[in-house]
Amino acid sequence: MKKLLTICIAVMTVLMMTTGVMAESTIKIAVVEPLSGNFKDIGDRYLEGVHYAAKVANENGGLLGKKVEIIPMDSELKPAVAVRKATKLIMKDGVNFFVGGTGSSVGGAMSVLANKKNAIMLSYGMAATSLTGEKCSRNFFRACATTDNQSYALAHWVADQKFKKVFCIAQDYSFGKQAVDAFVTKLKELNPAAEIVGTVMHPVGTKDFAPYVSQIIASGAEVVFTSNWGNDLTLLLKQAKPLGLKAQFACYYLNDENAIRVVANDEAVIGSVTAEIYMVTIPTEANKKFVEQFKKSEGRYPTWLRGKAYLATTFLFKAIEKAGSTDVDKVITAWEGLVYEGPAGKWTMRACDHQTQMPIWIAEIIKNNPYFEHAYVATPEEVASEKVSVPCDKTGCPGFQ
Amino acid sequence: MARSHNPVSRFGLWAVFVILAVLPLILRGYQLRLVTEVIIFSLYAVSYNLLLGYAGLLSFGHAMFFGTGAFAVAILLEHFAGLPLLLAVTLATAFTTATGFVVGCLLLRVKGTPFALLTLAFNALFYAIAVKWSSLTGGDDGLIIDPPQLDLWLLTLDPNKGPDFYYLSLAILGPVILFCWYFTYTAMGRTVLLMRENEDRMRFLGYNTLLARLSLFTLTAGLAGLAGSIYSLFFAFVSIDAISIETTTTVLLMTFIGGTGHFAGPILGAGVFIYLQNFLSELTENWPLIMGVLFILMVLFTPGGLVGIIKGAAQWTASRRKTPDLRKGAKNRHAHSGS
User: Which of A45, A365, B121, B141 could cross-link to A128 by cystine, CB 3.0-4.6 Å?
Assistant: First the structure.
């Protein structure tokens, strides 16, 4: 009996020690995404990008000599759920790094938690300006465009094309309002001669866009700005052309092969333009190499969310590498001002608000492309980061103490 | 719903108090957070049960008050810099109570299914206001709160620290839950119970039942608002989730799982719900399905909830204990009659 007890204790001690060693030998990154429910597809695509970034890092010897471990965390797109699960990961599993791209409300709650527990939250998709604006946090970083940046880029394109009559249509909630406000403000600044001939804020989940399309046609608009996403984008595009709308669309989210497939009518999307921080068609050598390797490894193209999540996560890895440590304070210090020359151009993490300064790419939707049988984005043009940037003193971020 | 005066119950109450007081010394970090969450949702569920279990008013809109309290405290702290924490909570609770009074005046003219449906409609209205009035509520993005420290004479509590917030919520919500328990034994509490059983008779006896229902509705709104305000301080963040129909469903589940027939039912329900949710969501992303099945099973087979099961088990044990005595007694009687 005594022998058996001794063996048990010895085995348990070895197991505990091994677990301890294993825990220390990995760098844990938790991915805060909706992995169930209506937005599962979005979460899954972001997660693929993060997984690939970790895979590349691990294949190259890991990070600081340690393996990168990805921990998917289903936020259910609910701030309280995300905070509860993240707290558990911080306190029980020692996770210090969180990344996520879906739901600015989840981002806001995670920003508070990261600040309280001294962790890092990196967003590659939460667009609310306040996250790096008036509600900025020392522990929150963003490596994607805000509504301001994306609207500014489209405003530049509309101004460059010398459109005179512009119509705005967006979903009636904070995101849609912010997007339209930023677009109108910038367009007025760039081309005062451009006239906003109409603005429609429609309910989220609208099924019948015919009344709005009639309104756009009646306004004589040459171009239609929309920040719509999901069904509100696909149904708008699907219904607009058959109803006789000739105007071009300037969209936030048409850089998505799934959305184009759902529209199921190439004629309805061809000629529209879209703006994003990453597109498969970006003509840099680094991007061509990345797309090729991703396709070879994963069997698909790193389109939209996959690419965005990969780039942002890689940017976080660069910061950890520069810090030479996983200590949160050291990583924060190392990341401020860090420059990352990646597939989507030059990215700089601005120290004043932790908002990445990055170019935005604008592309037209064309019929023939080497990626898909349906229409897809053409080779994009770069809108320099300086053109879409909001100066530090205008963000509302009071700085970090 | 009987009040017990026996010393065992009093001892139990003191034991619970002592355990809760020393809990931060035993539990650390995440586990303490879960207990804090249970305390907050306990008040929310208790307030709901006062409506459902005691007054027989099925509401599908209790989250409108929980959310109003949550948003009110966040908005107050955002717009009035330097506002003391307790004053913000008090004002948020007062505002929610006033809101409850106004909503109650509009809703309580009807009963039964129309009342339930109207509460659902009002919840949707409150939700829409929270989404649309984004300049005030932050809309879909929510509001980040920076809770100020609580300076009490010799003591300073930092709401950002787990143990401090635990004591803060326990000190505020604990006595309020005890007050709710006391309330059920007051004349007003009894009136509500009797009204549920036979409202016509109460009216015949001269009671103004509409006023009694309105008072209870207003009280429960205030209690839910208080729970909501502490909830948003706990997360230092409030989103439209707090005012959504889903938050009503949550309290409904907690109350039904715990049991509507006893004051402690919703508290037990809140605890089981939060721990089960925490446990199940680790295992599967389809945890709401399991919760839903559990809810259906409980409604079908144990309408008394967990408290009903515990009561049933206690009665069964007691009857098992009594049975040998009875047999013994019968045997003795038989022996006497035979002699």
Answer: B141
